[in-house]
Each structure stands twice: as structure tokens, then as C-alpha cells.
Amino acid sequence: MFLLGLTGSIGMGKSTTAQMFAEEGCAVWDADAAVHRLYEKGGAAVAPMQTAFPTAIEDGAVSRVALKEIIAADPTTLPRIESIVHPLVAQDRATFLAEAHSDIAVLDIPLLFETGGDAAMDAVVCVTIPDAVQRDRVLARGTMNEAQFDAIRAKQMPAKEKCARSNYVIVTDTPDHARAQVRDVIRDIREKLRHA
């Protein structure tokens, strides 16, 4: 199975592009969705998080809002949270790959380069759009203000650098253009697999 890492900064169209890969027959795993599963009631992260951070649990689930407050109050808690969550996310991904039935598995990981996850991939595809479009898209969601957006962007590797380090780049300016590029990437990978 060919492992294709999918990455891109906030608002670049990664989730939409991941959906396009799924529609083209690729198995798709979403790191953010895995964290949501782990945090929800009955999720594997609830018990260990309750032990480490009792105030982060609300109604039997891990509250992201409470976690943000804990981290804001004491930034040194972030590595402890990550030491609980990251192995569980890795386990979720391993289970997904063991059960996937496709020649290409797309692993949607926002901080792929930042966490060194690209080393485990056969290739990486990065989604991108101009900075101004990115800003407009994120702020149009109405879920954060400019300061919050800038803070998130500051934690992420610059889009130009992500693109330079990727094997494939998909410009998500229009759905039709993005879909055509997704098909090109799949075609190229399948061609390489045939000649491997």
C-alpha cells in the first residue's frame, strides 16, 4: 500500500481535497477526526486524560475548550497532553492501515512536516492557495478572529516551505482544478506502482 501524506496550512482546502481522494477510491485517514474520536465519550483518551487533567473532562468527554484553557494557563502542560494523545493517534492510524483496502492510503495530517511524520510516507502532497485567499477563507468561517488566525499560522511551517518539501502540490483555487490535480497525482502514483 502506497502511503501518501496530505498536508497544508489552515484554510488551504485540505479537508475538501481529502474528500476528493476518497471519492477517487483512495483510503483516507484524518488525524483531526482521530483526535475527535479519542476525545469523545468512551474514547481511548478520556481515561488517561482524566487521570492527568481532571478539569479537562466534561460529560465524560475531553473538552477542547478546557484543554486550551489548561495550556494557556501553563504552556508546559502541552508536552504532557501530547505524550498521552500522540501514541493513541498512532494506534488509530495503524488500525486504519491494517483494515484499509486500497492501493493508495492518504493520511491527512495538518502538522506532517512539523512533527517529522513525512519520514514515514512514500510521498507527500501539499495543498495551497495564495495567502490572501487563505486569510479570507479562514475568517469567513466565523470561528476565529485575525489574531487567532495569525497565532495558528505562526505555529505552522510557511506554506512555501511545505510546498518545496512535497512531492506533489495541489492548488485549491477552484473545486474543478483541485479535482483534476488529485486525479493527476493518483494517476502518477499508480503509474509508479506499476513500474516498481
Mean pLDDT across residues: 94
Distance between the termini: 12 Å
| CATH topology (level 3) name of the largest domain | Rossmann fold
Percent range of helical residues: 40-55%
Any idea how many domains?
Answer: 2
> What is the beta-strand fraction?
5-15%
Q: Cα-atom Rg, whole angstroms?
A: 18 Å
Main β-sheet, spatial strand arrangement: 2-5-1-6-7
CATH superfamily of the largest domain: P-loop containing nucleotide triphosphate hydrolases
Keywords: ATP-binding, Coenzyme A biosynthesis, Cytoplasm, Kinase, Nucleotide-binding, Transferase
Main location: cytoplasm
Function: Catalyzes the phosphorylation of the 3'-hydroxyl group of dephosphocoenzyme A to form coenzyme A.
Family: Belongs to the CoaE family.
